[in-house]
Write a structure and sequence with these properties.
- The chain has 157 residues and is of the alpha+beta class.
- The protein has helices spanning 3-9, 58-81, 109-129; strands at 26-29, 32-35, 38-39, 41-42, 45-46, 51-52, 55-56, 90-101, 132-138, 147-155.
- Strands 1, 2, 3, 8, 9 and 10 form a 6-stranded mixed sheet that branches.
- Helix 2 runs parallel beside helix 3 (109-129).
- The chain is globular.
- The two termini are 34 Å apart.
C-alpha cells in the first residue's frame, strides 16, 4: 500500500493509544542532523520543574538551558554514532530553538537562551558553534520542564 492509499484509508480521528509512539531523538536528512526537543533532564529526571518567573528563577532556567543543550548534543552524538561518525562531523550549528515555560510577565527568554548558545560555542568553537536562534515563551512544556531545546546541525558531505 502506498502512502497516498494509507492516507485515504486512515481513520478520521485518532484511536485510543496505550503506548506513545517512538520518536527519534535525532535524525539525519541529507547533510543535516535535526534533533527533537530535549528537556532539562539528567538520567530521565528533570533538574527543575515549573514555570520561569513563577517559582523558577533566571539562574535555574539558565542551568536548565545548559542541560537541554547538553542533551541536544548527546542526541546528535548518538545519531552520528549509528553511521560511525562523531561530533567532529558537525560543520555548523545552523539553528537553535529555545522554548521557555514562562509566566505572563517573564520576558527574558533570550537570557535563558544565552546559556544554550554559550554551551554550543564552548563545545563546537566560535566558527562551527555560531548559529541563528529563537527563544520563545510558552505556557507549559512537556514533563513540566522549564526549558526545551531543539537544533539543526550541518554535516560534512
Amino acid at each position: 500500500m502506498t502512502a497516498a492509499e494509507r492516507h485515504q484509508s486512515a481513520a478520521p480521528e485518532p484511536t485510543a493509544q496505550t503506548t506513545p509512539p517512538t520518536i527519534a531523538p535525532a535524525r539525519i536528512y541529507g547533510n543535516q542532523l535535526i534533533t527533537s526537543g530535549q528537556t532539562a533532564h539528567i538520567d530521565g529526571t528533570n533538574i527543575a520543574e515549573g514555570i520561569v518567573g513563577d517559582g523558577i528563577d533566571l539562574d535555574t532556567a539558565r542551568r536548565c538551558a545548559w542541560q537541554c543543550a547538553r542533551n541536544v548534543v548527546e542526541a546528535a552524538r548518538g545519531e552520528l554514532a549509528k553511521s560511525g561518525r562523531d561530533l567532529d562531523a558537525i560543520t555548523g550549528v545552523t539553528r537553535v530553538t529555545i522554548f521557555v515555560a514562562s509566566a505572563p510577565s517573564f520576558t527574558d527568554q533570550h537570557l535563558v537562551g544565552h546559556a544554550a548558545t554559550q554551551y554550543f560555542l564552548e563545545v563546537f568553537g566560535p566558527e562551527i558553534g555560531f548559529h541563528t536562534r529563537a527563544a520563545l515563551g510558552l505556557a507549559a512544556l512537556p514533563t513540566n520542564s522549564p526549558v526545551e531545546i531543539e537544533a539543526i546541525f550541518q554535516l560534512a558531505d
